[in-house]
Amino acid sequence: MTKPASTSAAGLRDVVAAPSSICFIDGEKGILIYGGYNIHELATNSSFEEVIFLLWNGRLPKQSELAELNAELSANRQLPAEIISMMKSFPKTAVPMDVLRTTVSALAFYDPDTGNNSPEARKRKAVRLTAQTATIVAAIDRIRKGQEPIAPKAELSHAANFLYMLNDKEPSDVEAKAFDIALILHADHEFNASTFAARVTAGTLADVYAAITSAVGALSGPLHGGANEQVMKMLLEIGTPDKVDAYVADKFAKGEKIMGIGHAVYQTEDPRATHLRRMSQATGERQGDTKWFDMSKHIEDLVVAEMDRKGKKIRANVDFYSASTYYMLGIPVDLYTPIFAVSRISGWTAHVLEQLGNNKLIRPRSDYLGEMDLKYVPIEQR
Ligand code: COA
Predict the structure, then answer these.
(1) Which residue's CA is minimally distant from atom 45 of ligand 1?
(2) Which domain holds residue 148?
Protein backbone atom coordinates (compact mmCIF):
# COMPACT_ATOMS: atom_id res chain seq x y z
CA MET A 1 0.00 0.00 0.00
CA THR A 2 1.45 3.43 -0.87
CA LYS A 3 0.56 6.68 0.79
CA PRO A 4 0.12 9.95 -1.15
CA ALA A 5 3.11 12.31 -1.44
CA SER A 6 3.31 14.73 1.49
CA THR A 7 2.07 18.25 0.85
CA SER A 8 1.77 19.33 4.46
CA ALA A 9 3.08 22.68 5.71
CA ALA A 10 4.02 22.83 9.39
CA GLY A 11 1.25 24.68 11.21
CA LEU A 12 -0.52 25.17 7.84
CA ARG A 13 1.69 28.25 7.29
CA ASP A 14 0.80 30.05 4.04
CA VAL A 15 -1.87 27.46 3.19
CA VAL A 16 -4.92 29.24 1.77
CA ALA A 17 -7.84 27.34 3.30
CA ALA A 18 -10.91 29.08 1.83
CA PRO A 19 -12.06 32.27 0.10
CA SER A 20 -13.14 35.13 2.38
CA SER A 21 -14.13 38.78 1.93
CA ILE A 22 -13.73 39.80 5.57
CA CYS A 23 -10.07 40.50 6.19
CA PHE A 24 -6.79 40.72 4.28
CA ILE A 25 -3.24 40.65 5.62
CA ASP A 26 -0.05 41.39 3.71
CA GLY A 27 2.52 39.95 6.08
CA GLU A 28 5.49 41.27 4.08
CA LYS A 29 4.31 44.87 3.95
CA GLY A 30 2.50 44.91 7.31
CA ILE A 31 -0.93 45.71 5.85
CA LEU A 32 -4.20 44.75 7.54
CA ILE A 33 -7.53 45.42 5.82
CA TYR A 34 -11.08 44.80 7.05
CA GLY A 35 -13.65 44.70 4.24
CA GLY A 36 -11.52 46.92 2.00
CA TYR A 37 -10.53 49.50 4.63
CA ASN A 38 -6.97 49.75 5.93
CA ILE A 39 -6.82 49.27 9.69
CA HIS A 40 -5.16 52.70 10.03
CA GLU A 41 -8.22 54.34 8.40
CA LEU A 42 -10.56 52.49 10.73
CA ALA A 43 -8.54 53.02 13.92
CA THR A 44 -8.33 56.75 13.16
CA ASN A 45 -11.88 57.41 11.99
CA SER A 46 -14.40 54.73 12.89
CA SER A 47 -15.99 53.23 16.00
CA PHE A 48 -16.04 49.57 17.08
CA GLU A 49 -19.76 49.41 16.28
CA GLU A 50 -19.09 50.59 12.71
CA VAL A 51 -16.43 47.90 12.41
CA ILE A 52 -18.83 45.22 13.65
CA PHE A 53 -21.26 46.26 10.92
CA LEU A 54 -18.46 46.27 8.34
CA LEU A 55 -17.31 42.76 9.28
CA TRP A 56 -20.85 41.35 9.19
CA ASN A 57 -22.05 43.16 6.07
CA GLY A 58 -18.96 43.89 4.00
CA ARG A 59 -19.62 47.65 3.95
CA LEU A 60 -19.73 50.56 6.37
CA PRO A 61 -23.16 51.39 7.82
CA LYS A 62 -25.31 54.40 6.98
CA GLN A 63 -26.34 56.53 9.98
CA SER A 64 -29.69 54.75 10.33
CA GLU A 65 -28.08 51.31 10.07
CA LEU A 66 -25.57 52.19 12.77
CA ALA A 67 -28.37 53.43 15.01
CA GLU A 68 -30.23 50.18 14.42
CA LEU A 69 -27.16 48.10 15.31
CA ASN A 70 -26.57 50.19 18.45
CA ALA A 71 -30.18 49.60 19.48
CA GLU A 72 -29.85 45.84 18.88
CA LEU A 73 -26.64 45.62 20.89
CA SER A 74 -28.19 47.68 23.65
CA ALA A 75 -31.30 45.49 23.77
CA ASN A 76 -29.19 42.32 24.06
CA ARG A 77 -26.42 43.24 26.55
CA GLN A 78 -28.16 41.94 29.68
CA LEU A 79 -27.36 38.37 30.67
CA PRO A 80 -30.16 35.98 31.66
CA ALA A 81 -30.51 35.75 35.47
CA GLU A 82 -29.81 32.00 35.26
CA ILE A 83 -26.44 32.74 33.65
CA ILE A 84 -25.49 35.17 36.44
CA SER A 85 -26.49 32.52 39.03
CA MET A 86 -24.42 29.91 37.22
CA MET A 87 -21.41 32.25 37.12
CA LYS A 88 -21.74 32.84 40.86
CA SER A 89 -21.46 29.09 41.43
CA PHE A 90 -18.02 28.87 39.76
CA PRO A 91 -14.89 28.81 41.94
CA LYS A 92 -13.66 32.38 42.59
CA THR A 93 -10.22 31.19 41.48
CA ALA A 94 -11.40 29.98 38.06
CA VAL A 95 -9.35 31.26 35.12
CA PRO A 96 -11.43 33.99 33.39
CA MET A 97 -10.99 32.47 29.91
CA ASP A 98 -12.34 29.17 31.25
CA VAL A 99 -15.32 30.98 32.76
CA LEU A 100 -15.91 32.82 29.49
CA ARG A 101 -15.76 29.56 27.50
CA THR A 102 -18.24 27.80 29.76
CA THR A 103 -20.56 30.79 30.02
CA VAL A 104 -20.66 31.38 26.26
CA SER A 105 -21.50 27.72 25.84
CA ALA A 106 -24.27 27.88 28.46
CA LEU A 107 -25.80 31.01 26.87
CA ALA A 108 -27.05 28.74 24.10
CA PHE A 109 -29.60 27.25 26.55
CA TYR A 110 -31.34 30.63 26.91
CA ASP A 111 -31.17 31.85 23.32
CA PRO A 112 -34.70 32.15 21.90
CA ASP A 113 -33.33 30.89 18.59
CA THR A 114 -31.90 27.66 20.01
CA GLY A 115 -32.15 24.94 17.40
CA ASN A 116 -32.74 27.46 14.63
CA ASN A 117 -29.77 27.70 12.25
CA SER A 118 -31.51 29.84 9.63
CA PRO A 119 -29.57 32.87 8.26
CA GLU A 120 -31.83 35.26 10.23
CA ALA A 121 -31.40 33.31 13.48
CA ARG A 122 -27.63 33.10 12.96
CA LYS A 123 -27.49 36.87 12.60
CA ARG A 124 -29.53 37.37 15.77
CA LYS A 125 -27.19 35.02 17.63
CA ALA A 126 -24.21 37.00 16.34
CA VAL A 127 -25.76 40.19 17.77
CA ARG A 128 -26.48 38.55 21.13
CA LEU A 129 -23.05 36.97 21.43
CA THR A 130 -21.30 40.20 20.50
CA ALA A 131 -23.36 42.22 22.97
CA GLN A 132 -23.11 39.68 25.79
CA THR A 133 -19.44 38.71 25.61
CA ALA A 134 -18.52 42.13 27.01
CA THR A 135 -21.12 41.79 29.76
CA ILE A 136 -19.82 38.33 30.69
CA VAL A 137 -16.21 39.50 30.94
CA ALA A 138 -17.12 42.46 33.14
CA ALA A 139 -19.32 40.18 35.28
CA ILE A 140 -16.50 37.63 35.70
CA ASP A 141 -14.42 40.24 37.49
CA ARG A 142 -17.29 41.58 39.61
CA ILE A 143 -18.47 38.14 40.69
CA ARG A 144 -15.05 36.81 41.65
CA LYS A 145 -14.57 39.91 43.82
CA GLY A 146 -17.88 39.13 45.56
CA GLN A 147 -19.62 42.08 43.87
CA GLU A 148 -22.88 42.20 41.92
CA PRO A 149 -22.57 42.57 38.13
CA ILE A 150 -23.38 46.10 36.91
CA ALA A 151 -26.26 46.44 34.45
CA PRO A 152 -25.28 48.07 31.14
CA LYS A 153 -26.38 51.61 30.28
CA ALA A 154 -28.29 52.06 27.04
CA GLU A 155 -26.71 55.41 26.20
CA LEU A 156 -23.08 54.21 26.38
CA SER A 157 -21.03 52.85 23.48
CA HIS A 158 -19.88 49.23 23.55
CA ALA A 159 -16.39 50.25 24.71
CA ALA A 160 -17.63 52.68 27.38
CA ASN A 161 -20.23 50.18 28.56
CA PHE A 162 -17.60 47.52 29.11
CA LEU A 163 -15.41 49.82 31.21
CA TYR A 164 -18.49 51.02 33.10
CA MET A 165 -19.69 47.47 33.85
CA LEU A 166 -16.15 46.50 34.91
CA ASN A 167 -15.42 49.45 37.21
CA ASP A 168 -18.91 50.68 38.20
CA LYS A 169 -17.72 54.08 37.00
CA GLU A 170 -18.20 55.67 33.60
CA PRO A 171 -14.86 56.06 31.82
CA SER A 172 -13.62 59.45 30.62
CA ASP A 173 -14.06 60.13 26.89
CA VAL A 174 -10.33 59.62 26.39
CA GLU A 175 -10.36 56.25 28.16
CA ALA A 176 -13.45 55.11 26.26
CA LYS A 177 -11.87 56.19 22.97
CA ALA A 178 -8.60 54.37 23.74
CA PHE A 179 -10.51 51.20 24.54
CA ASP A 180 -12.70 51.60 21.46
CA ILE A 181 -9.56 51.76 19.28
CA ALA A 182 -8.16 48.66 21.00
CA LEU A 183 -11.42 46.85 20.16
CA ILE A 184 -11.18 47.95 16.51
CA LEU A 185 -7.58 46.73 16.27
CA HIS A 186 -8.39 43.26 17.66
CA ALA A 187 -11.68 42.75 15.79
CA ASP A 188 -10.50 40.41 13.07
CA HIS A 189 -7.38 38.81 11.72
CA GLU A 190 -8.27 36.47 8.90
CA PHE A 191 -7.77 32.73 9.53
CA ASN A 192 -6.01 32.92 12.88
CA ALA A 193 -6.27 29.86 15.15
CA SER A 194 -9.45 30.83 17.02
CA THR A 195 -11.28 32.05 13.91
CA PHE A 196 -10.32 28.92 12.05
CA ALA A 197 -11.55 26.84 15.00
CA ALA A 198 -14.88 28.72 14.80
CA ARG A 199 -15.15 28.09 11.06
CA VAL A 200 -14.29 24.40 11.40
CA THR A 201 -17.02 23.96 14.02
CA ALA A 202 -19.56 26.06 12.11
CA GLY A 203 -18.74 24.05 8.98
CA THR A 204 -20.22 20.92 10.57
CA LEU A 205 -23.51 22.88 10.86
CA ALA A 206 -23.12 22.91 14.64
CA ASP A 207 -24.77 25.86 16.37
CA VAL A 208 -23.21 29.36 16.37
CA TYR A 209 -22.66 28.99 20.15
CA ALA A 210 -20.69 25.78 19.58
CA ALA A 211 -18.51 27.57 17.02
CA ILE A 212 -17.82 30.47 19.38
CA THR A 213 -17.11 28.12 22.29
CA SER A 214 -14.44 26.44 20.10
CA ALA A 215 -13.00 29.85 19.29
CA VAL A 216 -12.78 30.93 22.95
CA GLY A 217 -10.94 27.70 23.77
CA ALA A 218 -8.45 28.27 20.96
CA LEU A 219 -7.90 31.90 21.92
CA SER A 220 -6.93 30.98 25.47
CA GLY A 221 -3.52 29.54 24.58
CA PRO A 222 -0.31 31.55 25.23
CA LEU A 223 0.72 31.35 21.57
CA HIS A 224 -2.51 33.12 20.56
CA GLY A 225 -4.63 35.42 22.75
CA GLY A 226 -2.83 34.50 25.95
CA ALA A 227 0.34 36.37 24.92
CA ASN A 228 -0.87 39.80 26.13
CA GLU A 229 -1.17 38.51 29.70
CA GLN A 230 2.28 36.97 29.45
CA VAL A 231 3.69 40.33 28.31
CA MET A 232 2.32 42.11 31.39
CA LYS A 233 3.51 39.33 33.68
CA MET A 234 6.95 39.77 32.14
CA LEU A 235 6.88 43.56 32.74
CA LEU A 236 5.77 43.05 36.34
CA GLU A 237 8.43 40.37 36.86
CA ILE A 238 11.14 42.70 35.53
CA GLY A 239 9.73 45.40 37.80
CA THR A 240 11.97 48.37 37.03
CA PRO A 241 13.55 49.79 33.86
CA ASP A 242 17.12 49.19 35.09
CA LYS A 243 16.50 45.40 35.09
CA VAL A 244 15.39 45.16 31.46
CA ASP A 245 18.83 44.55 29.93
CA ALA A 246 19.70 41.69 32.27
CA TYR A 247 16.25 40.09 31.83
CA VAL A 248 16.37 40.16 28.04
CA ALA A 249 20.01 38.96 27.96
CA ASP A 250 19.02 36.03 30.18
CA LYS A 251 16.09 35.14 27.87
CA PHE A 252 18.39 35.21 24.84
CA ALA A 253 20.98 33.08 26.67
CA LYS A 254 18.34 30.47 27.52
CA GLY A 255 16.90 30.59 23.97
CA GLU A 256 13.48 31.56 25.34
CA LYS A 257 10.94 33.64 23.46
CA ILE A 258 9.86 37.13 24.49
CA MET A 259 6.07 37.22 24.52
CA GLY A 260 4.32 39.77 22.32
CA ILE A 261 7.06 39.59 19.71
CA GLY A 262 6.90 37.67 16.45
CA HIS A 263 3.99 36.67 14.30
CA ALA A 264 3.04 33.73 12.14
CA VAL A 265 2.07 36.00 9.21
CA TYR A 266 3.80 39.40 9.63
CA GLN A 267 7.40 39.57 8.51
CA THR A 268 7.51 43.18 9.58
CA GLU A 269 5.78 45.28 12.23
CA ASP A 270 2.23 44.26 12.98
CA PRO A 271 0.27 47.40 11.94
CA ARG A 272 -1.85 47.08 15.08
CA ALA A 273 1.27 47.39 17.23
CA THR A 274 1.93 50.81 15.68
CA HIS A 275 -1.32 52.16 17.17
CA LEU A 276 -0.98 50.36 20.47
CA ARG A 277 2.60 51.63 20.94
CA ARG A 278 1.30 55.18 20.47
CA MET A 279 -1.63 54.48 22.79
CA SER A 280 0.60 53.02 25.51
CA GLN A 281 2.86 56.06 25.37
CA ALA A 282 -0.05 58.54 25.34
CA THR A 283 -1.80 56.78 28.23
CA GLY A 284 1.42 56.86 30.29
CA GLU A 285 2.01 60.54 29.48
CA ARG A 286 -1.56 61.42 30.43
CA GLN A 287 -1.13 59.65 33.74
CA GLY A 288 2.30 61.22 34.34
CA ASP A 289 4.13 57.87 34.44
CA THR A 290 5.56 56.26 31.30
CA LYS A 291 7.43 53.51 33.14
CA TRP A 292 5.54 50.59 31.54
CA PHE A 293 5.77 52.12 28.09
CA ASP A 294 9.49 52.89 28.52
CA MET A 295 10.23 49.35 29.67
CA SER A 296 8.25 47.88 26.77
CA LYS A 297 10.02 50.09 24.26
CA HIS A 298 13.42 49.16 25.66
CA ILE A 299 12.61 45.43 25.48
CA GLU A 300 11.33 45.86 21.94
CA ASP A 301 14.50 47.72 20.87
CA LEU A 302 16.73 45.01 22.36
CA VAL A 303 14.79 42.16 20.75
CA VAL A 304 14.58 43.85 17.36
CA ALA A 305 18.36 44.53 17.40
CA GLU A 306 19.06 40.89 18.30
CA MET A 307 16.67 39.58 15.62
CA ASP A 308 18.18 41.88 13.01
CA ARG A 309 21.63 40.62 14.00
CA LYS A 310 20.36 37.05 13.38
CA GLY A 311 18.70 38.07 10.11
CA LYS A 312 15.16 37.33 11.41
CA LYS A 313 12.26 39.64 10.59
CA ILE A 314 10.65 39.44 14.02
CA ARG A 315 8.84 42.47 15.39
CA ALA A 316 6.26 43.52 18.01
CA ASN A 317 2.79 42.08 17.56
CA VAL A 318 -0.65 43.26 18.71
CA ASP A 319 -0.12 41.90 22.22
CA PHE A 320 3.10 43.69 23.05
CA TYR A 321 1.75 47.19 23.73
CA SER A 322 -1.84 46.24 24.49
CA ALA A 323 -0.47 44.81 27.77
CA SER A 324 0.86 48.10 29.18
CA THR A 325 -2.10 50.03 27.74
CA TYR A 326 -4.66 47.82 29.51
CA TYR A 327 -2.60 47.87 32.71
CA MET A 328 -2.66 51.66 32.75
CA LEU A 329 -6.43 51.59 32.08
CA GLY A 330 -6.72 49.63 35.36
CA ILE A 331 -7.78 46.35 33.77
CA PRO A 332 -6.79 43.19 35.73
CA VAL A 333 -4.07 41.24 33.90
CA ASP A 334 -6.00 37.98 33.65
CA LEU A 335 -8.80 39.81 31.80
CA TYR A 336 -6.57 40.79 28.86
CA THR A 337 -7.30 37.62 26.90
CA PRO A 338 -11.05 37.73 27.66
CA ILE A 339 -10.96 41.35 26.43
CA PHE A 340 -9.39 40.11 23.21
CA ALA A 341 -12.55 37.98 22.93
CA VAL A 342 -14.78 41.02 23.66
CA SER A 343 -13.42 42.44 20.40
CA ARG A 344 -12.75 39.29 18.36
CA ILE A 345 -16.30 38.02 18.86
CA SER A 346 -17.17 40.43 16.04
CA GLY A 347 -14.71 38.74 13.68
CA TRP A 348 -15.57 35.22 14.83
CA THR A 349 -19.27 35.77 14.22
CA ALA A 350 -18.55 37.41 10.84
CA HIS A 351 -16.55 34.33 9.81
CA VAL A 352 -19.23 31.95 11.08
CA LEU A 353 -21.87 33.84 9.05
CA GLU A 354 -19.61 33.80 5.99
CA GLN A 355 -18.79 30.10 6.41
CA LEU A 356 -22.47 29.18 6.71
CA GLY A 357 -23.42 31.46 3.83
CA ASN A 358 -21.59 29.09 1.48
CA ASN A 359 -20.82 26.10 3.62
CA LYS A 360 -18.44 23.29 2.88
CA LEU A 361 -17.39 20.91 5.65
CA ILE A 362 -13.72 21.60 6.50
CA ARG A 363 -11.94 18.30 6.42
CA PRO A 364 -8.23 18.29 5.50
CA ARG A 365 -6.03 15.20 5.32
CA SER A 366 -3.14 14.28 7.56
CA ASP A 367 0.39 13.61 6.41
CA TYR A 368 0.55 10.08 7.83
CA LEU A 369 4.00 9.22 9.16
CA GLY A 370 3.23 5.85 10.70
CA GLU A 371 3.83 2.28 9.60
CA MET A 372 1.85 0.51 6.90
CA ASP A 373 0.77 -3.13 6.35
CA LEU A 374 1.66 -4.44 9.84
CA LYS A 375 0.38 -7.90 10.72
CA TYR A 376 -1.72 -8.13 13.88
CA VAL A 377 0.16 -9.88 16.71
CA PRO A 378 -2.00 -11.48 19.43
CA ILE A 379 -1.52 -9.70 22.76
CA GLU A 380 0.07 -12.67 24.53
CA GLN A 381 2.78 -12.82 21.84
CA ARG A 382 3.85 -9.11 21.94
N1 COA B 1 11.22 35.91 20.94
C2 COA B 1 12.40 35.41 20.54
N3 COA B 1 12.57 34.65 19.43
C4 COA B 1 11.48 34.42 18.69
C5 COA B 1 10.21 34.94 19.03
C6 COA B 1 10.11 35.69 20.21
N7 COA B 1 8.95 36.17 20.61
N8 COA B 1 9.32 34.55 18.11
C9 COA B 1 9.98 33.82 17.23
N10 COA B 1 11.28 33.73 17.57
C11 COA B 1 12.31 32.98 16.89
C12 COA B 1 12.15 31.50 17.23
O13 COA B 1 12.92 31.14 18.36
C14 COA B 1 12.64 30.82 15.98
O15 COA B 1 14.04 30.83 15.99
P16 COA B 1 14.87 29.65 15.31
O17 COA B 1 14.54 29.72 13.84
O18 COA B 1 16.29 29.98 15.63
O19 COA B 1 14.38 28.38 15.96
C20 COA B 1 12.19 31.76 14.85
O21 COA B 1 12.08 33.06 15.49
C22 COA B 1 10.85 31.38 14.25
O23 COA B 1 9.92 31.20 15.33
P24 COA B 1 8.64 30.25 15.25
O25 COA B 1 8.04 30.18 16.58
O26 COA B 1 9.01 28.98 14.57
O27 COA B 1 7.79 31.05 14.20
P28 COA B 1 6.24 31.07 14.09
O29 COA B 1 5.93 31.73 12.81
O30 COA B 1 5.67 29.71 14.32
O31 COA B 1 5.92 31.96 15.36
C32 COA B 1 4.71 32.91 17.03
C33 COA B 1 4.90 32.78 15.53
C34 COA B 1 3.71 34.04 17.27
C35 COA B 1 4.16 31.60 17.58
C36 COA B 1 6.05 33.23 17.73
O37 COA B 1 6.63 34.39 17.20
C38 COA B 1 5.88 33.36 19.24
O39 COA B 1 5.85 32.34 19.94
N40 COA B 1 5.79 34.62 19.76
C41 COA B 1 5.55 34.83 21.15
C42 COA B 1 4.09 34.56 21.48
C43 COA B 1 3.18 35.67 21.00
O44 COA B 1 3.46 36.83 21.18
N45 COA B 1 2.06 35.25 20.41
C46 COA B 1 1.02 36.18 19.97
C47 COA B 1 0.93 36.19 18.47
S48 COA B 1 -0.18 37.47 17.92
Answers:
(1) 223
(2) 19-218+337-357
